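Hello,

Following up on my earlier ticket. Below are the three sequence lines again, exactly as submitted.
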Amino acid sequence: MFDAIVSADTLQDALDSVSVLVEECKLHLDEDGLQVRAVDPANVGMVDLTLDAAAFESYEADGELIGVNLSRLEDIAGMAAADQLIHLELDEETRKLEISIDGLEYTLALIDPDSIRQEPDMPDLDLPARITLEGRDVDRSVTASDMVSDHIALGVDDAADLFYVDAEGDTDDVHFELHSDDLIDLEAGDAHSLFSLDYLKDMNKAIPADAEVEMELGEEFPVKMHFDIADGQGAVTFMLAPRVQSN
Amino acid sequence: MFDAIVSADTLQDALDSVSVLVEECKLHLDEDGLQVRAVDPANVGMVDLTLDAAAFESYEADGELIGVNLSRLEDIAGMAAADQLIHLELDEETRKLEISIDGLEYTLALIDPDSIRQEPDMPDLDLPARITLEGRDVDRSVTASDMVSDHIALGVDDAADLFYVDAEGDTDDVHFELHSDDLIDLEAGDAHSLFSLDYLKDMNKAIPADAEVEMELGEEFPVKMHFDIADGQGAVTFMLAPRVQSN
Amino acid sequence: MFDAIVSADTLQDALDSVSVLVEECKLHLDEDGLQVRAVDPANVGMVDLTLDAAAFESYEADGELIGVNLSRLEDIAGMAAADQLIHLELDEETRKLEISIDGLEYTLALIDPDSIRQEPDMPDLDLPARITLEGRDVDRSVTASDMVSDHIALGVDDAADLFYVDAEGDTDDVHFELHSDDLIDLEAGDAHSLFSLDYLKDMNKAIPADAEVEMELGEEFPVKMHFDIADGQGAVTFMLAPRVQSN
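Thanks for your patience. The regenerated structure is below:
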């Protein structure tokens, strides 16, 4: 059985992190919480989401696996006020999800999990640089770079003890440096990789401005970005593959 | 003569209730207030609006009948701040409406009342169920149903002493129950009718969230919705014809 | 050299006044401040902007002349919070403008000033009427007139000691009178001229609601509108050519 109660804002924050990459996903409903892993159709961006049982007001599950349409589920959650509770219950017979918000009941048809793209393995990379920064600095980097280019370089200058962002456009450029003093933390190591801004913009939408984002970078390697949601009772990891260096 | 002064928000609330159904209407300017009755082009939705002379700061009329373009009149009223006063005066000679807002004068050409669709008779139905609920619950019903379907069933279960809303979509369903405890008042009697959501969505736009809406329902009969505006010095009644039961 | 620091809202207010008329302009960076003069492609509307060195937190210039894309520069300024400082520095070698906002550096390619439309001479007209009014009254005049027409007459009735606005549409009219009591100041003299609303609407966007606007009017002559920005340390003058009287 799956029967859980969760606040609307917790559910929305969790769903947002996945819906920026995919339309449909599989929800693993295990005893200790909800878990999602998904990769976008082009195999460029991945997300790993966990939402602990403790993030729910009440939670019961036995390892169910269900497939959902995320925008549909987000629209339903969007009808609730941020602090309102949402009750989710799987009807084993009909294989539909019963969603109640203060008396209002929504019956959501599920998607056959076998028809949803296979879940990716999040590779275990040993990346040389680890930068911890505020979500708002990720946002500034992405927003400014988007004004001049469609790609963005993220790097760490080990010698200068700083994290930098570079975007080179046809006429204008953006450069952003954050020294270790401006960062929450920096474990320096030379790193430089180029990424598609389209993906980073999508991921950025799901990163709260006040989140502590732990970023891992290498030399022409994927970037990983990790942050907590639900007061630390949930976690999101994004991974984005690098672009071939443009010249 | 017609010469009246009214606050912008009172005028706007009154006009909104009519403009959701029709573009043009006839205003009856009687000694005791303003009155409008209108039906949409498809003869499915009706509105009856009265705004008592007491709802105006000052009011004088002798039974004039004028035709107005509602969106034009709403645009003019929209230039005023909510608590600003709007002065309306009929120029008998030019047959135009002089509208002043703090020194600004707008001369509105009127429409020949004979060119406007005939006013409907609001039928006097003796409907078995009467539900009194908050405007925000009408809004929740309509908004949620709109996510899954283009029609909505409204009903009362006499035995269970509850009002319900049902919307059945191709894959998902919405069900909403309000027991007599959740309602302001319920005079139960079996009732169940199906309605077009397009019309209910339009009517819903004119219902304030904190209004007390008195709804009358029957078995495959029209629904009537009545609520006050202008601190009880005005009243709106909507009537919506039922749809043939879908199956 | 050009090296200046200015608050984001001061820079934005200044740029707004020019960008409502043209896409690109020449910035004169003189010792005592920044100056722009521009005319729209149809030679109907002109703007003269000065921003004194005192409006900047720091300012150094030696008579540089640079060409800029205004919407690009406004987008960059828009990334800063209103009270954030923007650092502008001309790189003499690359002929690019280096713009920094709290660590973020934007390198803006400049436009060859010779490729930008020539700057107009703002004619020195001796206009008979001078009206000083609040920006919000300019806004009301323009917004109301726009509801009925695409042109607007501005005038002063010397005998009646009032300023008036007239807009005549195909069916509806707008008339707005401000007596000398309603104005900040009125130096009366008969005046009446007709203007294109498209231009006035654009200029109106750059006029703050609480600005004191000094308007100069004549008989079928251009209108001049003058107002201060940056707490009086900057000034904008708009001039708009009259339309031929419609009939």
